[in-house]
Design a protein that fits this description.
Layout (H helix, E strand, L loop, with lengths): L1 H13 L6 E4 L8 H10 L7 E4 L4 H7 L20 H9 L11 H7 L4 H14 L3 H10 L5
Parallel strand pairs: 1-2
Length: 147
């Protein structure tokens, strides 16, 4: 990982680039990625840059962010969670399965009984895609999940 960053820094210096967006996707597949990044942050190399770190193993990223105390500048964490089942249904069929004017799960179940077949089918698909947008799109386009 350090070599890749150093290669980019050489390129950046050769073209007099003073600041950049650096996107490190699927970073959790790279062992000890945080060490290479932390060293260069401590050296002040990225003081004018924005570094975006992402990956599908979000728990690993959250755990490894502890290695960056005081080194995050004006940055912030943005965690993308999957859609909840009610939001999944709402986005696909415009059915409000957890209506706000109804109190309790049992009342919601009674009201939604009319949608029982559709909800059962959607729930099976929800379990395949996990409510994540990319697998949802792949599933509905190709009939299969990217997982």
């Amino acid at each position: 990982m350090g070599e890749v960053i150093d290669d980019y820094l050489s390129f950046r210096n050769a073209y007099n680039i003073s600041s950049s967006f650096i996107i490190l996707d699927e970073i959790t597949f790279v062992e000890d990625w945080y060490r290479a990044l932390k060293l260069r942050i401590d050296q002040g190399i990225f003081k004018n840059d924005v570094i975006l770190v992402s990956g599908s193993a979000s728990l690993e990223i959250l755990k490894q962010k502890e290695y960056f105390p005081g080194r995050r500048g004006k940055g912030k964490d943005i965690v993308f969670y999957p859609l909840s089942f009610p939001n999944y249904v709402r986005s696909l069929k415009n059915i409000d399965v957890m209506r706000k004017d109804i109190f309790g799960v049992e009342d919601s179940m009674k009201v939604n009984r009319v949608h029982q077949n559709v909800l059962g089918e959607l729930f099976s698909k929800y379990l395949v895609t996990g409510g994540f947008p990319l697998p949802m799109e792949e599933f509905f386009k190709k009939g299969e999940s990217v997982f």
